[in-house]
Amino acid sequence: MRVLAAMSGGVDSAVAAARAVEAGHDVVGVHLALSTAPGALRTGSRGCCSREDAGDARRAADLLGIPFYVWDFADRFKEDVIDEFVAAYAAGETPNPCLSCNEKIKFSALAERAVALGFDALATGHYARLKDGELRRAVDDDKDQSYVLAVLDHDQLSRAMFPIGDTPKPQIREEAERRGLAVANKPDSHDICFIPSGDTRAFLGARIGIRPGAVVDSTTGDTLAEHDGVHGFTIGQRKGLGIEAPAADGHPRYVTGIDAETGTVTVGPATDLDIRSIAANRVVWTSGETPDGPVECIVQVRAHGGLAQAVATPLDDGTMRIDLREPLRGVARGQAAVLYVPDAVKGDRVIGCGRITGSHA
């Protein structure tokens, strides 16, 4: 099988490519240039897509004896990932850019080019598994990335390969060292790849500008502080609210609501964060078929954490309602609600996902 291996310059994608070669596939490596002005070096574990990363990917490909190319996707990445990320925050949402990147860049734009060039599959270093065409959690729970891959539809999954999803991360590093890959001990990337400083608020502020508004107490209706824009807040946030005095009851306040139109950020007690129903659009059913009725599942609303027993109901307009068996906190518009069905033998499988548009107590 002809396999295009996406090589970021990290240890995971290098080992994924190596395993594809070892399996006997005809493998070609490709590094995606996603920045119009890439830095020369990474800053420790922050950022990616630097010239250093491209060089690391090329050296790994050379060691594996496979052809290697750098493809420029910077304009597409800016439009489909960065601009969407900024617009979502400006609208008071909390997006996950990895979801957009997987959906629109790696498994859409890149996969489409791969198919056009005659490749049968796209291999990546994601921690997830495919069993009988179904997306499942990785063996390594701490590194599992099935959440950010749940946006992939049936056709995209049919052309995907996740060679390292059956192995814990420490063993991947050991394998890389045995194979002589120089990236064996390279730090993992953290935070958002296109914000190497790690200062998301400053990044957004430079692009959105100042849009002043008020921080309002949900209990009293009092204005507690002023702010420069709703992009500086997320649901469930406790610190950095600009509030000087404690609440009358002495308990901390949390962001419980964001209204981008009025610029109002509502804060209140932790109990105000309890959610029992979620509405979602842009629904993807992994099998390619919409269920006939309600489905018992586990819903996850953040990449790491935020799980609850639930019943997901597909609606006639293509959206979805998720009723929770137990309350969840920190549910924000713009996040993904990913649906899993537990399987103790084969690992939890993803059955669908949607983009959260609203929630109710």
UniProtKB/TrEMBL annotation:
Gene3D superfamilies: Adenine nucleotide alpha hydrolases-like domains, HUPs, Translation factors. The active site is at 101 (nucleophile), 193 (cysteine persulfide intermediate). CDD domains: MnmA_TRMU-like. Belongs to the MnmA/TRMU family. GO terms for biological process: tRNA wobble position uridine thiolation. The record marks 126, 335 as: Interaction with tRNA. It is an enzyme of class 2 (transferase). It comes from Gordonia phthalatica. The gene is mnmA. This is tRNA-specific 2-thiouridylase MnmA. InterPro entries: MnmA-like, MnmA-like_C, MnmA-like_central, MnmA-like_central_sf, Rossmann-like_a/b/a_fold. Pfam families: tRNA_Me_trans, tRNA_Me_trans_C, tRNA_Me_trans_M.
